[in-house]
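Job type: complex structure
Entries:
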Amino acid sequence: MSTFLFVTPTWDGQLWAGEMRKAAPAMNVRVWPEMGDPGTIDYVAAWLPPPDVVRSLANLKVIFSLGAGVDAILKDPTLPENVPIVRVNDPDLTMRMSEYVVLHVLMHHRQQRRLDENQRKGVWDSFPTHAASALRVGVMGLGVLGQDAAKKLALLGFKVAGWSRSPKTVEGVQCFSGAGGLDTFLARTDVLVSLLPATPETDGILNRGLIRKLARSGPFGAPVLINAGRGRQQVEDDILAALDVGELHAATLDVFRSEPLPATSPFWTHPKVTLTPHIAADSDPAVICEYVARQIADYEATGKLSNLVDRARGY
Ligand code: NDP
Ligand code: OXD
């Protein structure tokens, strides 16, 4: 019988363990810190593991992330080097992210915040609106999540482009890549959506310099920023300053440098900011445990794993 350990100090480990027992009834499931003999653990699911815990699992076969991002695991400086890391790539999570991106692009496009404010004040202002085809959306990160969101936006009629590290071909989406493609991508973008992973290269990428390279010829005269990637990508003072002087028209932010967002953050009350508490694409415990159980069954049958993390790239 294989043994599976949850090391998720900021999540409800018992809840996850319950779902894992349903998904893999033959598995012996434990929750850190009650892990028993570390040498008996075959598989671990980790999210912000304390240093040395994962390293102490001498016979570990696979490390699982319970989300699509792996920064919360790679942050552990003591992580064993030779154990593969598998991340989540599941239609449930992908659909949740696409719902979020489509919702917020549409919200800005249809000026819903302005309509809500008018309703609150009892103002009947039927201002002119524009077609989806008038808005150029640019998705940074054309991975599993970025590609799906980009395709769904294109189906709605938005002019969609994407930017990734390596060149891509995505139907209905104009693709740019690498440092060489970034400025052209930004210059044609009215609504910038970030679905990038947190890596040393993407740290602070959403800064004033980048914001100034975005298009200003769109329907709102200034660009909109939507970030559901990671907070580390944001230079938050730059975003606030850009909103204040009108270099940004509005922003939707799901992720922040510090989470939970401190009560003192100006983002809470900024009139041009819509914020959500890192819920763009929740990991559903039942769904993700089934995904992990499937991976383990495949691994034990064939020795193969899918959706492996490349530690050198950081995602
Ligand atoms: P993928 O690994 O599938 O895609 C990442 C994309 O980013 C790839 O297209 C990759 O390029 C691109 N990329 C990475 N580094 C760079 C760079 N330096 N320059 C340009 N492009 C780059 O990840 P997912 O789509 O599954 O997830 C993306 C991220 O979304 C996660 O890492 C996580 O941070 C975030 N997330 C947020 C959630 C939330 O609730 N807010 C929920 C789930 C995920 P290439 O294709 O060339 O490799
Ligand atoms: C993830 C997340 O990476 O929820 O899946 O942020």
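Summary: The longest strand covers residues 159-164. The chain has a mean pLDDT of 98.
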